[in-house]
Design brief:
The complex is a heterodimer.
Chain A lengths: L1 E6 L13 E6 L13 E5 L1 E5 L10 H4 L8 E5 L17 H5 L7 E5 L17 E5 L2 E5 L1 H11 L3 E2 L16 H21 L5 E5 L6 H12 L6 E4 L8 H12 L8 E3 L5 H9 L4 E3 L1 H8 L2 E3 L15 E3 L19 H5 L2 H9 L4 H26 L3 H11 L9 H6 L11 H8 L2
Helix pairs in contact in A: 3-4, 4-5, 5-6, 7-12, 8-11, 10-11
Chain B lengths: L14 E5 L2 E8 L6 E6 L4 E4 L1 E3 L12 H6 L4 E4 L1 H6 L3 H7 L2 H5 L4 E4 L3 H7 L4 E2 L4 E4 L6 E4 L1 H11 L3 E3 L12 H20 L7 E3 L1 E2 L5 H13 L5 E3 L8 H14 L6 E3 L5 H9 L4 E3 L2 H7 L2 E4 L2 E4 L19 H5 L2 H7 L4 H27 L3 H13 L2 E3 H9 L15 E3 L14
Classes of the chains: A alpha/beta, B alpha/beta.
């Protein structure tokens, strides 16, 4: 597999600095073997589209196509396909692109777990990662993961790791983290050994909040030549973003700086900006999904113009003031929803628990998120990102009150149109 | 996927009717059965009939955008007056410029009267000559829905077609209550006509009642015909009655109703019912079944219904129907839908899209067959695929009444044996979605 990462401008370094780059994929095997195909290019910083069962939340393909200029990159977690047992590989004879009806002009990343679910009860063991399914806990071994990857033929894989599940550092004893580092290293070895399809491997960078163990894990990874990128999926959940980024930074300084870096759980706009400033390249669109689930429409803007005082960064379509508001979700927005519908209709759909509410909101929120990343890349090119980000964090008062929509997904995602999460939302909105 | 009807080229109708807000033109008549293919010019759209109308109770078809509905070739969709009257309410709908504008739907809309929900959803509904008295579910106060109020609400919603408030009794009810309801429905129709404020923009359809009683239903239809309405509905059926009674009531009604006006059979949506009722001369149908069953993981196919949750589809790499041209069948396998159906709302949307496409394709095929005067052959082929040798008795009887005898072998050698089973275990009158 030829997955290249090209960094624009200065030489790659492990120092905390934002980077503009591109991920370039040229498939040499499988469905593209022998076919002259243009390379797939993902401009970074970028996000992978978050999916459930390979579908963007709420959007069937013909509706997803209403959202312009989405990045050609999709992430899928294999746990979605553990229905009652381990997924049957015969289902995927022609690979995952075909199975989930994804355009072959998309870079497909295969991960293990859903990043929007952070509370997990199934416990791992020495030889397997535990996956909760309808029929109880299932075991995902390194060998099974590699076998699945071989038949699914993703472009990028994030092998299984033993993620430290306790959300608070105080709860986590050093022994647990040490075990996680040992297991993860062993699983990575076993996985790469059994992987016959030439997917690019993004290695999980583990060590939780232990600097010593993070050093150990990062050093081991840095010595490997079969790793194409890094996935930061093991930073303590409830730490403030700056502290999480400090842990990431600690690992980054030891890793190969020329490789792309994907951070999970950092998709909220304020987190994205802070992470980009520290040199993270890749994210996923969990955040717009969380926004949609709460019945909100994104309104945040990155840029040097506009007021510096705190502004709301989303519009709550549940509020009574929306009842007779015939304006678009956001004045001037060019998304399908804003062109075709008004706030009053979306408010009505939410109130009546109609599923179209979340469809229309997701279209807007994905459009908005895509635009935000466009702005980040432009700002980076113009060299104004540090100032623009500082203004953004100030404008939306992020120091006092970080964007918190993702937290609402923490205890299992629920749609306002399926299971009512309204109460929790209302409580979280109380001053 | 939009396929066009073959009567685009026909410009001289065989017969027609014209009223201020509706022009109905019959372009083809089956030479064997009572089926016909027509155009119905409504204020917002020219619909082709026989047609199926998906139900969008609250002003949306579950999870589907109006742009998708257009691409799926839906001509008219339904809204429910009771639901829309409580949320968002008539004042807001008026302010928004009617339901069309509110939901951004440029084609045809039909609203029911709200009476059915009064009786089916609310406890303690009490019907008097004045109207339906019910307890407000929000504050427990006694409230009244009169024919005038129903029309007032429907005028605010602004649908192309409105339904009169009728005195609904279960199709299983017998005795004097049925006759009382039938006559009261006629009186309520007269009050509704008087209350209708927008006759040049909206059409009011009366509803034939009379339970399963031949005399009452005949009388009801005759009374309604005297009112010279733009079109007529056949109501009070599909409530769990024997199918043998159902089709006889439908056929009796279409025999009396004027041939140059549209006939709408309420609450019908099973494929075999659509094929049979079209042969009996019905032009319009609605039912929540196709969209509701989709959300339980059931995909509609010509052979029946495919429950995609079943383990047998785990590794089935065929589409739901390889001849279907819907966006779902173009991309997804049964194995994939098996893993997403009922787990993800998006998975439900995929099946909903297919099921709407299925209904629309079926209606298109029915229209084409009528236009080309091969509807009897179409019916035989349809029944062969759906039931094979053993066809429910009521279907055999209904078709025999319009000169299609399934028990006599055709040129392909197909013939059917009637079986007593109705193939309908649950009533399919779900008028709100």
């Amino acid at each position: 597999m030829a997955l290249r990462f090209e960094l624009a401008g200065a030489k790659a370094s492990g120092l905390a600095a934002p980077r503009r780059g591109r991920l370039v994929l040229h498939r040499l095997v499988g469905k593209d073997a022998g076919v002259e195909r243009p390379a797939i290019v993902l401009e970074t910083p970028a996000f992978f589209k978050y999916t459930r069962h390979g579908l963007q939340p709420h959007l069937v393909p013909e509706v997803a196509a209403e959202v312009d200029a989405l990045p050609p990159a999709t992430r899928v977690q294999i746990e979605d396909f553990f229905d009652s047992d381990a997924p049957d590989c015969s289902r995927f004879e022609e690979g995952l692109h075909k199975f989930i009806a994804l355009d072959t002009a998309e870079i497909l990343m295969l991960d293990t777990l859903d990043p929007t679910i952070s509370v997990r009860t199934a416990k791992p063991a020495n030889t397997y990662m535990a996956i909760g399914s309808e029929a109880g806990t299932k075991r995902l071994t390194p060998d099974l993961f590699a076998q699945l990857a071989n038949s699914l033929k993703p472009d990028i894989v994030i092998p299984l790791a033993d993620i430290v599940e306790e959300p608070l550092p105080s709860l986590t004893q050093g022994k647990r983290i040490s075990k996680s580092v040992t297991r993860s290293a062993k699983w990575l070895d076993e996985c790469t050994a059994a992987l016959t399809y030439p997917a690019a491997v993004f290695a999980p960078v583990v060590g939780s909040h232990s600097l010593e163990l993070r050093t150990m894990a990062a050093k081991a990874l840095a010595a490997r030549h079969d790793i194409a990128g890094y996935a930061f999926n093991d930073v303590c959940l409830t730490l403030p973003m700056e502290q999480k980024l400090n842990l990431v930074q600690h690992s980054l300084e030891l890793l190969d700086a020329s490789k792309p870096r994907y951070m999970l759980g950092a998709s909220a706009p304020d987190s994205v900006l802070c992470a980009v400033l520290r040199g993270i390249d890749l994210f996923d669109s969990s955040y717009p999904y969380a926004v949609t689930e709460l019945g909100l429409a994104s309104t945040y803007v990155l840029g040097s113009d506009g007021p510096a005082k705190p502004l709301p960064y989303s519009l709550d379509l549940w509020q009574d003031a929306m009842f007779a508001d015939f304006g678009p979700l956001v004045e001037g927005c060019t998304c399908f929803t804003c062109r075709s519908h008004h706030r009053s209709y979306v408010h009505h759909l939410l109130k009546t628990k109609e599923m179209l509410a979340t469809v229309l909101l997701q279209i807007h929120n994905m459009h908005w998120y895509q635009r935000f990343f466009d702005d980040i890349r432009r700002s980076l090119e113009q060299g104004t990102l540090p100032a623009d980000a500082a203004l953004f964090l100030q404008r939306y008062n992020c120091k006092e009150k970080p964007f918190s929509e993702l937290d609402t997904l923490a205890a299992q995602a629920c749609s306002p149109t399926t299971k009512i999460q309204r109460k929790r939302h209302a409580e979280s909105q109380k001053p | 996927m939009t396929a066009t009807d073959k009567f685009g080229h026909l410009d001289t109708p065989l017969e027609a009717s014209s009223s201020p807000a509706l022009k109905f033109e019959v372009y083809a008549r089956c030479s064997t059965t009572k089926a016909r293919a027509s155009k119905m010019h409504l204020p917002h759209y020219t619909a082709h009939t026989p047609m199926f109308m998906p139900v969008g109770t609250m002003g949306s078809i579950k999870g589907i955008t109006t742009k998708q509905l257009e691409a799926l070739d839906c001509h008219v969709i339904l809204g429910n007056t009771y639901h829309l009257g409580s949320r968002p309410g008539p004042e807001l709908l008026e302010k928004a410029g009617g339901l069309h504008k509110f939901m951004a739907w440029d084609r045809g809309l039909l609203t029911d009267s709200g009476g059915f929900q009064m009786v089916s959803l609310l406890k303690l509904a009490n019907i008097t000559e004045e109207g339906v008295e019910f307890e407000n579910p929000h504050d427990g106060q006694k409230m009244m829905l009169t024919p005038e109020m129903s029309i007032g609400l429907q005028n605010a919603i602004g649908a192309d077609i409105m339904m009169q408030l009728d005195d609904v009794v279960s199709s299983l009810t017998t005795g004097p209550r049925v006759e009382e309801a039938m006559w009261r429905s006629v009186r309520w129709l007269d009050r509704s006509i008087k209350a209708h404020k927008r006759p040049t923009e909206q059409n009011l359809f009366p509803i034939v009642q009379g339970g399963l009683d031949i005399e009452l239903r005949t009388k009801s239809a005759q009374e309604l015909v005297k009112r010279d309405s733009p079109g007529y509905a056949i109501g009070g059926l599909s409530g769990g009655e024997a199918k043998g009674s159902f089709w006889r009531m439908v056929s009796l009604s279409t025999d009396i109703l004027p041939t140059n006006k549209p006939r709408y059979c309420m609450g019908v949506g099973y494929a075999e019912d659509l094929v049979v009722c079209s042969a009996l001369g019905v032009d319009m149908y609605d039912c929540v079944f196709p969209t509701r069953t989709a959300r339980f993981g059931n995909a509609l196919v010509r052979t029946g219904s495919m429950s995609l949750k079943q383990g047998r589809y785990t590794s089935d790499l065929e589409p739901i129907d390889k001849n279907c041209d819907c966006p779902t069948c173009a991309k997804y396998t049964r194995a994939y839908l098996h893993t997403t159906a009922t787990k993800e709302t998006t998975g439900c949307h995929l099946i909903t899209v297919h099921n709407i496409a299925f209904q629309m394709r079926l209606m298109l095929d029915i229209r084409q067959a009528i236009v080309e005067d091969r509807y009897p052959a179409f019916i035989r082929e349809f029944m062969r695929i759906r039931f094979g040798k053993t066809v429910p008795m009521w279907i055999v009887d209904a078709l025999k009444s319009v000169n299609v005898d399934l028990t006599v072998p055709d040129s392909s050698g197909y013939s059917a044996e009637p079986v007593a089973d109705d193939f309908q275990k649950v009533p399919n009158t779900w008028t709100d979605e």
